[in-house]
Structure formats: structure tokens, C-alpha cells
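Researcher: For the annotation table, I need C-alpha cells for G patch domain-containing protein 11. Please keep the output clean. Sequence:
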Amino acid sequence: MAEEEEDDYMSDNFITQTESVRPGLAWGKHAKKYESEKRQKAAAAKNRLKPLKEREHEERQKGLNSALTSDNKGFAMLQKMGYKKGMGLGKQGTGRAEPVPIEVKADRGGLGREAEQKRKQQVRERLEVEAMRKRQKMMGQMKGDFRQRMRDKFDDKITGKDLYDSQKACQYLDESKGFGDPVVSWYWPPKPVEKKIKDDDEDDGGSSKDGLRTEAYESEEDEEEVEDEVDEDTFTPQEKLQQLTQYLRVTYHYCVWCGTSYEDAEDLQKNCPGSSHDDHN
């Protein structure tokens, strides 16, 4: 028996053979063919996994995006009547140039339900926008009111301090001229009023029950002080400060913000910046 000839691994026949002898590997045109088939199988498998409605939608869109040709019977009839591709319908060619779009109803809602929901959504969005604008406007007003209140509070604090300083200066200047009492009761700093408290068995102007103590005025002077306090309440601190400032400037040529008594009205007018707190800032 003749011995089988062994393969010559250095020969051309072995190098140019078309099929791979190594299992599991492909090369050359076989590799390209294998990859192409693999991609086609993957695409087909992926397409099978898509829901039926999605596949129908894709096919429908593909058909709608494709232009009509003479193979279509309706398009062929239009061409026989003189229609040319791209022109509008009608005798003058000014009509519709594109087919009427179609809208497939895929849900179970009644006719017009989607349009009604869309309208309600638009109304809801508009109301939300208006409510947001109102809230922003209200917040802006609240911020403005808060700033104004704080500004007024700061101004009232400054006014109260200036009024007290003016009252002290007025008392000093009046007493230096020999006045025992102020021209107006509130031109001088208020004195602490001591309220007299009487026992229940001395019911003079006050009444009490169950051992409670009440306030009673000892004399008519106390009542007059109360009346003066009521009169003072008719003026605001700004009005009091304005009147007292005018009194000090006219009578003593004194400015509380300068802290100086000028020689005369001309000297006051010439060297004092003004008759208000802002004029001295």
C-alpha cells in the first residue's frame, strides 16, 4: 500500500485555499459575508421584538414619505388631466400641492376627546402662568412694603432722637433765660409722672372690686397733665420736631444738628446748612 503523500505546507495550493481550516474563524470575503448575515439576523430579530403598532406606524410613515408615481392609479388619472408633479391642484395651479395628511386613531377615546384634552391643558397652563405672575407681583409688593416699613421705622427712630435732643436744648435755653415752664408743654422733655394708688377703702375717683387696686389722681394738676398729654398726641413726632426746630431757630438762633447757637438770624441763615436732618447729611 502506497503511503499517502503528506501536505506540503510551503506550496501555493495550501496558501491560496479559499476555505479556512481553523474552526470558529473566518477571514477574507467569508468574514464579510458572515458579518453581513449577522447584522441582518440581528435587525430582523430586533424588528420582531417591536410592538405591532410601532411596526405599523413605521411602515405607514415610510409609505407617506414616499412620493407617488405613475404606478398609482389616482396619480395616473391626474396626469391624464394635465397635472404635473409638484404643481398645485386647480385650473390655475394654486390649490393644494401636497396630499391631505392622515391621522390614524389608535386609542379608544371618543372623537374630539384628544382635542378637548389639549384645550384643557392649554387653559391649565395659562392659569398656572397667571397665578405665578400674581404670586411674583405679590412677593414684590410684600418686599417693597417690608422695605418701606423698615425705612419708616428707621426714620421714626431718628426723628424721636432729634426731638428729644431738641427738647433738652430748649429746656436748657429757656431756663438760662429764667423761664420756669416751657412755652408749650412738650417743648421740654416729658417728666416721669408718678401715678398715685389709693386703697380700696379710700374710693376717691376710682373703684375696685375683690381687693383690686385702681389708679386715682390726687389733684387737678394731675388731670391737667393728662389733658396736656392728650393735646400732644394730636401732633406726630415729625410735626413736633418741625415746630420745635422753628421755635429754637427763631428764638435762640439755635440749630440742634449743628449744636450751635448763632449770633443772629443772618449768621444762622449763612452758616447753617438747613432746618432738617437731611440738610445736615
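Researcher: And a one-line annotation?
Model: The longest helix spans residues 113-176.
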